[in-house]
Every structure is written in C-alpha cells, then in structure tokens.
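re: that complex we talked abt at group meeting.

here r the seqs, copy pasted straight from the sheet so there may be weird spacing, ignore it
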Amino acid sequence: MKNAHKKIGKQTVKLDNPPKIICTTSIVGPKEGDGPLKDYFDIILSDDTNGKETFEKAETSMMYTAIKETIEKAGLNEEDIDYLFAGDLLNQLASSSFAARDINIPFVGLYGACSTMAESIGLASLIMDGGYAENVIAATSSHFSAAERQFRFPLEYGSQRSEVAQWTVTGAGAMLLTHSGNSPAVTYVTTGLVKDYGIKDASNMGAAMAPAAVDTIYRHFQDTGRTPQDYDIIATGDLGLVGKEITSKLLLEYGYDIRDVYVDCGSVIYDNERQKTNSGASGCGCSAVVTCGYFYKKMLKGEIKRLLLVSTGALMSTTTSLQGESIPGIAHAVAIEYDGKLPCGSD
Amino acid sequence: MKNAHKKIGKQTVKLDNPPKIICTTSIVGPKEGDGPLKDYFDIILSDDTNGKETFEKAETSMMYTAIKETIEKAGLNEEDIDYLFAGDLLNQLASSSFAARDINIPFVGLYGACSTMAESIGLASLIMDGGYAENVIAATSSHFSAAERQFRFPLEYGSQRSEVAQWTVTGAGAMLLTHSGNSPAVTYVTTGLVKDYGIKDASNMGAAMAPAAVDTIYRHFQDTGRTPQDYDIIATGDLGLVGKEITSKLLLEYGYDIRDVYVDCGSVIYDNERQKTNSGASGCGCSAVVTCGYFYKKMLKGEIKRLLLVSTGALMSTTTSLQGESIPGIAHAVAIEYDGKLPCGSD
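got the structure back, here u go
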C-alpha cells in the first residue's frame, strides 16, 4: 500500500488539487505605508495604534480586520470557512487568539516565528488538497512596538539599534484558499527542519535564519527537480540585507544560483536608508503583507507567474537568549503559481 | 464537485483511513510519579531539572527524550518520520523548537495552550489520512517551575496559591502515528472555536476553559450523531475540579449527560489533597502524559475501547491579563478507538 503517495522526496508535497488563493488582504502601519510597496497594500493605518489603547490590541485589530475583509471580499460569511490557520509573534499567540475570539471559525494556532505565513499557507493547502475543507483562511500579523517591548526593550528606553538589526513590520496579511476559481494556486509545500549554526546575537536574526532558508530552498529543488530558473521570484521572508547575502552565497556553494530571481521581503518593504530600518524588515507580518499585497497583485497582473515563498523564522525567546542559547531558525516554503485570467478583487 | 467530502458537520472530520497510534512515550517529574497514575508512565524523573541547569532546558530535554524514545520503540529512525507536530507553553514554543533543533524531522510548531496535544494529534491525523505521510510524531510538554515563573511568579517568591489554582504538570508525551499495525486509531477530529465568557482570574483557568470544552463536546456529538454512551471515556484536558463541575452541568443543560464516562486528566493525575494541588493539574503535558501513559495503556489492555480526548487551552498571556483582558479558551477533540489485539510496546 502506498500511503504517503503525495509526498515527493523527504520534505515536499506536490498538491494534486492545488488550492486557489481567491482573495487576500494586507494591512500595514504608517511606516510600511510610506515605503516602496505602499501602492500594493489594501489598508494603510494612519496611526499604528489603530485607535486602540495598546500596541497588542492594535495588532489584534489588524489581524481581525485582515481576516474579516478577506471573507467579505470573497462574498462569503464566517460560516462558509472551515478553518482559520493563524499565528503571530506575541507570547501565547495573543494577536491570533484574541482575533479568533470574535470570529466563528474553527481555529488552529500555529507558531513558526516569522515563518508562520508559509507554515499556515502550507498546512491550509494540505488540508484543502486532502478534501477536508472548502474554504480556509491563512493569516499572520506582527507589530513593531509590541515586538520591541516583548523581545528587546520598551521604546521608551530609546535603545540604540544595531547596524544589523531589523525593523518588525506592523501589519497583518490574510488569504482565502478555496477549490474553484481562476486564481494563483498553491502547488508545492516544503516543510522545514530546525537549523542552528550557533548565532547568539538576537539583533542579527538574518544570519541566524539564513541556514534554515538555504536548507529549505535546497531541499525544495532536490525534492521537486526544479531549479531557480523555474521561478520568476524566490522570496525569503525577512532575512534582511545581511541574511540575504549569506543565503545567496551558501546556495551558490550548493550549486544553485538564485541571484537573478531572489527577493527578500524584509529587504524591499522599506527604503532602508531613508526610513532608517538598518538591515531591513522582520516579523510574521513581513512576508504576510508582501505576499498578500505585492506578490499577489503582481501575479494577478501576470507580472509574476511562479513564486516560491520561503518564510523564515528565528525560534529564540528572551528566556533562551538570557540562558545563553543560540538561535534556532526554520524556513517553510510554498510554491504559488498563476498563468491565467482575472479572479475576484482584480481590476 | 464535492471537495470537502471528508467533513461531517461544521467542525468534525471522519477519517477514512484512521491512523494507528503504534507507540507512545510519557515522561513525568517526581510529583507526577508520586501520584495515582505512577504505574502508567514510562519514565519518572527523580529530579525535575533532569540534570539540566534551568527548568526550561529540563523541559526541552523531556520533550526530546519523549520523541526519541517513541521513534526507537517503533524500531524506526528519524529519517522514517515525515513530520513532527509539537508545541508547548513556553514563550515562542522554546521547548519544542529547541528539541526539534536536535531532531532531523520537518517541524510544524503549534500553539493551543493546554489544548495542544489534541491539536497536534488532530492535525497529524488529517495529514496521515490524506496520504501526505507514512509516520508522524505528535508531542507536547510542560514544566511546573518554568510555567510558574513565566505565567505567574518565580517560585522563590513563595506566593500563596489560590484555592482554584491548578498545578502545571511536569511532563512530556509523544505518540507515533502510522498506517499499519493493530493499534488504537484516531477516527474523528473535531476542531474547536475560541470561546470567551469573560473570566479574568488567571488562577481560575478551569472556569475560563469550560465553555470551550462544552462547545467542542456538544459540536462533536452534533456532527457525528454520537452520544456519551458511545464512549467509555470522555476526557477533558485540564479543567480541574472547578472546570469539570461546570462542564458536566452545562452539557446537561444542552441535553447530554456525560457524567458516567467523564474524566478530567487534570483531576486524576495528582492526589489533590495529599499532594496539595488544589483544583488539580494543568499544562500541555497534562493531557499528553495521561493520554500517552494512562489511557493508551488501558486501551491496549482492552479496558477502554472508545476514548474522546478533549484537550483544553486557556489562551491568555501575562500581557493580555495585565491589560485587563478576559481569558479566551479553546478545546480540540479527537476520538481514539481500539478493540483489537496487542500492538508494539504491549506486554
């Protein structure tokens, strides 16, 4: 009996019934809305508290709105959605859990640090492909000010930022996967291994995550037989300028030159010099809003046909760092493809 | 086209190819090993630091050992396992992530607070049933001392415990799901909604989680057409004495009398009076070790044929509590059934 017939290679699944991403919503804060990708985001907040009394509640409200908007745009109701796969950076997934409290959809909480967007799309796609759902929402969020005080220092301290530090994206992205429609579809899911090469500097997450990104991209190529030339864009989540450089170089050593098609979401969302974001962006929200906003809309316009999204997560906590541990990284990849006509939400 | 043909009702999937739980491992600390279920645990630590320098590293080591032991008992290697679904209570899933760092298996991090064991078994079962894997590990852990200082106060403060407080289980449980073999099998997966009835007392988690347990159990009966009489045991995760009482009563109001078959894992793992554990146990590890130890071994002996495991999670963080939020709860359920002969690991 061939039970795991849908697995190709050790870490990759090829989807027989690629679920379609029929709608997405991207919400960002004012800083992201002032960056190079501003024209691609659906909602730009004028105030990063979004009218709430705390940054954490602001993040929850962004997550909630991203999910609700996506369902509404598709002309569906909460009752039509089988599962919500979501996660975020806040301790105990506070943003996702508190958003899910007000949404009547079976909820599966996920944590992969900043790899969570690809993790949620990947799991959602397997559940869709397997016939367990008609409609699934995958969503993540992050918030600069909430992340700073949880992982580093309260903003009030005015701490100096390291040259290799990254700026957590204030934003939330949600996508709706369904079976029918003519939309970008998820075709492959490559699940990552945890990799730790001993980096201990929590302000240099790009370097900590790069080995995981390299491993997952390499494994994706090995499992699928694809090469960098099969993709218009290969996008890591939030390695920033430092981690991007490492990833390109290491993959070259493994025989894959991805430089022509390589974009790091964390390196394109800000104008790093003007916006003083040092090594670029990070956060679950980073690959979420760049994918739900920028990439998705480029795909609808036919400007990207094949995207490999490789969201990347640094799995440390403040406790593990204080206890002298290094930073494990993980990367999950999903291939999204579209060569067709206009689905819902396009012009 | 009937795409979601495996879904019955709004929240439940009936598995066409019920994955078999061929091996489990339960590891507990000294207190759990001194309780009423001591004869059912595989490994009892004589020291709750497990020889490590911090409680967090002790928890990671328990999670690691539970996973490795389970794979070894089945006569398999890490390379044979397609996915590791795991989560824990520590911020950023430190226990799972750091255990996974030393284990060469594609890792999917989950967070459902103390509902994580049923969440991981449920997702693992869907992935198995769908043909995406030959072998999957589902695992969770918790540690009393690590949880106390993260969620409440460092032990050194000597804080008084509330009468309704629960004692976080020091323990880890892992199970291996596969396709063949004659073992207890996962037959139904009911995914929960987040429910919040306004409880704000973080030392009264049983009351906060009870509405979610009630909702998921009720939904399971509605979706499947089953009744309490179809189960030998219906087990909530860690509602403790207070939450258990609420759950029984509320379900009675909905027309289901589960009292004859109702066990709460958190109410049976300690001798609450002698061990001074007040309202009982809690923690991801609670339903994990009670299921991987006690229930699983009772099933192998034919003493339980049908189990409905309903792990229950309280989704607050210290930040949300300090910000005046109430405590959302969630419960996920899996049905595990066995009427057969002896699989691996039995006498």
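couple things i noticed - Chain B has two domains: 7-178, 185-337. The longest strand of chain B covers residues 20-28.
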